[in-house]
Amino acid sequence: MKSKAPKPKPLSRFNYTVARQQILDTIRRIPKGKVASYGQVAFAAGWPGRARLVARVLGDVEASDGVIPWQRVINAQGKIAIPKDSPGHRTQIRLLKAEGVVFLNGKVSFERHGWQPGDPSPLLD
DNA sequence: AAACTGACGTGAT
DNA sequence: CATCACGCCAGTT
After folding, report:
1. What's the rounded Cα separation, in Å, for the pair A108 and A80?
2. Interior angle at CA A45, CA A25 and CA A16, nearest 5
3. I need a surface site. Which of A30, A57, A93, A113 has the fewest CB within 10 A?
């Protein structure tokens, strides 16, 4: 059998405004020195399977959203999701290194820095 | 309305 | 480990 069935998800008309707020709140809970993948954030925010929604929200994020530790969200491969050439790419690496995140071969080890929703929520860090 | 575009994820090659 | 192909989702063209 080759079915993959990661179990999509029914769900009906969601509200981008609401979803965005939940996603940003979730990201705010990631402690300094830790990282989470897009899919992980989506799941923790209550939108399983919406990794791309998280990406979109982060892309739209502005100063008006307050302090969002956006740099702590990377892809499931432990790599920076922003295009290599983009200036944001280097910025993200700089910010993460500044908080103690270690890069090995351009990748972050979830084993070492992976955030778990059960961890204490600094809520400010 | 159809096609295209991504700061995604996963399994196969 | 690098690529590719798909699946998925919401916003843009």
Report:
1. 9
2. 80
3. A93
Rg (alpha carbons) of chain A, rounded to whole number: 15
* Nearest alpha carbon to residue A60 among A87, A10, A21: A21
Q: Report the candidate in A49, A55, A114 with the shortest Cα–Cα distance to residue A82.
A: A55
Which nt sits closest to A105, CA to C1'? C1
The single residue listed with the structure tokens 């050439």 is: A85
Please say if the pLDDT value at position A11 is more than 90: no
Kindly state the DSSP code that residue A64 receives in the 8-state scheme. G
Residue with CA nearest to C6's C1' atom: A4
pLDDT at residue number A27 = 97
Per-residue confidence (pLDDT) for residue A5, from 0 to 100: 33
For residues A60 and A36, give the distance between their C-alpha atoms in angstroms, rounded to a whole number: 19
Q: Which nucleotide is nearest to A20 (CA to C1')?
A: C10
